[in-house]
Amino acid sequence: MTNLYIIIALLLFAAVIYSFWRLQKKHVKFSTRVFIALGSGIVFGALLQLLFGATGDVTTGAIEWINIVGTGYVRFLQMLIMPLIFVSIVGAFTKIEGTKDLGKISITVLTTLLATTAIAALVGISSVMLFNLDGAEFVQGDAETAQIAALDERQEAVADLSIPEQVVNFIPSNVFADLSNSRSTSTIAVVIFSAFVGVAYLGVNKKDPENGAFFEKIIKSLYAIVMRIVTLVLRLTPYGVFALMTKALATSDFNALLNLGKFVIASYAAIIVMFLIHMLILLGVKVSPIQYLKKTWTVLSFAFTSRSSAGALPLNIETQTKALGVDDASANFSGTFGMSIGQNGCAGVYPAMLAAIVAPTMGIDLFSPTYILTIVAVVTISSFGVAGVGGGATFAALIVLGALDLPVAIVGLVISVEPVIDMARTMLNVNDSILAGIISSKRINRFDAAVFNDDEAIVKSDM
């Protein structure tokens, strides 16, 4: 009977997948289809667990096949990271009107991303204090034990590196190896290499305009092709989201979820506060938060449901340039850098919260201003190179906890609520990159207020 139930579950899964395809053919809005997939995954996954149990043979067997869709979607997104980084950063250099803007754009974007990450770390620590989570202990089940063992292996890659050594590790020694994502710091290494290519292009274009123009055409063609591949992958989002949420709900330990409920609430509280801080910053640069939210709803909702800053990059750049009035260079720089540097949610709030929770268990006074500043500094530096797909937050947490000489078991203990928190974290990451683009565009006086105030200038995804 077990095999029969697995086949029935898979047939139901396939039927729902087919219904999403039908919705696409009827031209139902992309964001609507993604949210329907999110809700369907929650319901279908919960039903599997209620009927057959989180570790039952039927659930395990069905999820093994369903995981092909979910994991396949995530891997397609991971496949896009390096090409996206390269063509977006180099493409940004081809859009810069004069080298004088290069320094202003790059410094402004990086300063905004890193400064807001430092603030996010403070907010995360404050949330832990407010909800009395410092020193909290969470239930450790079989799933958490397995995760902790796996995390111990992952930490070995960064455990023996000091912060200065980690910074040196960002520099690429074999760019072809980094393009294949062979190292934990490959993302930031490709960013650095792409920036060198962009600077070289500016020099060649100045001395030899003919070759510069030829290279620019090549990059534009590559950009168009990569973005077309991105569109094809993003069309799979409803299917991927449905499969991922089905797995998350079907295999989650509900007792663990209840146990971690306070952590989830504290995490969302910190993310919401950080989002409000972003809105205050917009007010500070004389940009209406209300108009901003109207214009960014599509990309932010996509980031929330897809849990991928990399997947949201095309919509991110398009929203900045076509709906918000940000210049092309600032949009490309902020979107790409924000995908791998200074992610407020995954590399700011999350690792800072975990460090604050576990520090008191090691006899450390969390209320010490010196230690708080130490956490903030480590989190900010470690925010370089966090990949903009699922799993980036875990890697960021491992680096931070390892640098602070804190146990990594806490990462495994909260793994069961990762999908729930990761949606909001990703949305915060994308929002911060857009914020950096606006501030940069304002600084170089190329922000188009007319486009920003035009209610008709809204990006609508038709994927």
TrEMBL record:
Keywords: Amino-acid transport, Membrane, Transmembrane, Transmembrane helix, Transport
InterPro entries reported for this sequence: Na-dicarboxylate_symporter, Na:dicarbo_symporter_sf
Transmembrane regions listed in the UniProt entry: 6-23, 35-52, 72-93, 105-131, 186-204, 225-245, 265-285, 371-389, 395-417
Membrane topology: Multi-pass membrane protein
Pfam families the record matches: SDF
Family: Belongs to the dicarboxylate/amino acid:cation symporter (DAACS) (TC 2.A.23) family.
This protein's name: L-cystine uptake protein TcyP
UniProt organism field: Carnobacterium antarcticum
